[in-house]
């Protein structure tokens, strides 16, 4: 079956670093996305990984290990505006549909 | 400005009263999709469309209909809404729906069915 797991909630301090993990079990794999969603707003694209390794984009980095079915999103120099939910989504081989995790709510404290 | 728009943004209705949520994109995207988002659950796809006159069911299509008569519009129709369709709905679009294509989301429609 299809399954994507993320922690429900995490708390971190302004200026610190936080790592949000995502594990997946899908029948195929054709890429993994991370989206950010502020409360009451639409998800917005953060990163895309299809090959193993680390993709860095400013304060945000995303890592993928296909053999382990594992990804993480790393946020550095946390700011209060980073308080949001972070959604992990996997695209399977068979179609263009995305399978979404339930999201990780990140709370940033001063 | 490139965007996906949805209307209405908020809607309260009663069981059985047909409603339509409109979705429009101005980016000439071929792929469009509808999702619902409920607390504790991930985004779940309702229907998607690869191009004009091409639609297909997602994971939770029961109780919903869609149409794609023009490239820019992809309305979601609830013929006979029920309380279990109370949810936050998002429309999304992307260039082709293919590998690596990011999806652009509309602002969301919050629906309450009494």
Can you tell me about this structure?
- The complex is a heterodimer of chains A (110) and B (114).
- Chain A has strands at residues 3-5, 9-13, 18-25, 32-37, 44-49, 53-57, 60-65, 70-75, 84-91, 98-100, 104-109.
- Chain A is mainly β and 110 residues long.
- In chain A, strands 2, 4, 5, 9, 10 and 11 form a six-stranded mixed sheet that branches.
- In chain A, a hairpin with a 6-residue loop joins β9 (84-91) and β10.
- Chain A is globular.
- By secondary structure, chain B is mainly β.
- Chain B has strands at residues 4-7, 10-13, 19-25, 31-37, 44-51, 54-57, 65-66, 76-78, 87-94, 104-105, 109-113.
- Chain B is globular, with a radius of gyration of 13 Å.
- The model of chain B has no long low-confidence stretch (mean pLDDT 93).
- The A-B interface holds A 4, 30-31, 33, 40-45, 48, 50, 87, 89, 91, 96-103 and B 31, 40-45, 48, 50, 58-59, 90, 97-100, 102-108.
Which features does this protein show?
heterodimer; A: 110 residues; mainly beta; six-stranded mixed sheet; five-stranded antiparallel sheet; 11 strands; 0% helix; globular; B: 114 residues; seven-stranded mixed sheet; four-stranded antiparallel sheet
Helix content of chain B: under 10%
What sequence of helices (H) and strands (E) makes up the elements of chain A? EEEEEEEEEEE
- What distance lies between the first and last C-alpha atoms of chain B, to the nearest angstrom? 36 Å
What's the helix count of chain A?
0
Average pLDDT of chain B, to the nearest integer?
Answer: 93
SSE layout:
The complex is a heterodimer of chains A (110) and B (114).
Chain A (H helix, E strand, L loop, with lengths): L2 E3 L3 E5 L4 E8 L6 E6 L6 E6 L3 E5 L2 E6 L4 E6 L8 E8 L6 E3 L3 E6 L1
Parallel strand pairs in A: 2-11
Antiparallel strand pairs in A: 1-3, 3-8, 4-5, 4-9, 6-7, 7-8, 9-10, 9-11
Chain B lengths: L3 E4 L2 E4 L5 E7 L5 E7 L6 E8 L2 E4 L7 E2 L9 E3 L8 E8 L9 E2 L3 E5 L1
Parallel strand pairs in B: 2-11
Antiparallel strand pairs in B: 1-3, 3-8, 4-5, 4-9, 5-6, 7-8, 9-10, 9-11
């Amino acid at each position: 079956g299809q399954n994507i797991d993320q922690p429900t909630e995490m708390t971190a301090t302004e200026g610190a670093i936080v790592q949000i993990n995502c594990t997946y079990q899908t029948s195929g794999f054709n890429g993994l996305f991370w989206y950010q969603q502020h409360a009451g707003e639409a998800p917005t694209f953060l990163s895309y990984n299809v090959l193993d390794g680390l993709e860095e984009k400013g304060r945000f980095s995303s890592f993928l290990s296909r053999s382990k079915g594992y990804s993480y999103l790393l946020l550095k120099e946390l700011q209060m505006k980073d308080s949001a939910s972070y959604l992990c989504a996997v695209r399977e081989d068979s179609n263009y549909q995305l399978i979404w995790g339930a999201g990780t709510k990140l709370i940033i404290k001063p | 400005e490139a965007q996906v728009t949805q209307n209405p943004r908020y809607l309260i209705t009663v069981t059985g009263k047909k409603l339509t949520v409109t979705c429009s994109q101005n980016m000439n995207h071929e792929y469009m999709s509808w999702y619902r988002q409920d607390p504790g659950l991930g985004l779940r796809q309702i229907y998607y469309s690869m191009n004009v006159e091409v639609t297909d069911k997602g994971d939770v299509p029961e109780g919903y209909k869609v149409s794609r008569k023009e490239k820019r519009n992809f309305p979601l129709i609830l013929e006979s809404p029920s309380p279990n369709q109370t949810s936050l709905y998002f429309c999304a679009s992307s260039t082709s729906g293919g590998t690596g294509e990011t999806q652009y989301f509309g602002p969301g429609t919050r629906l309450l069915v009494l």
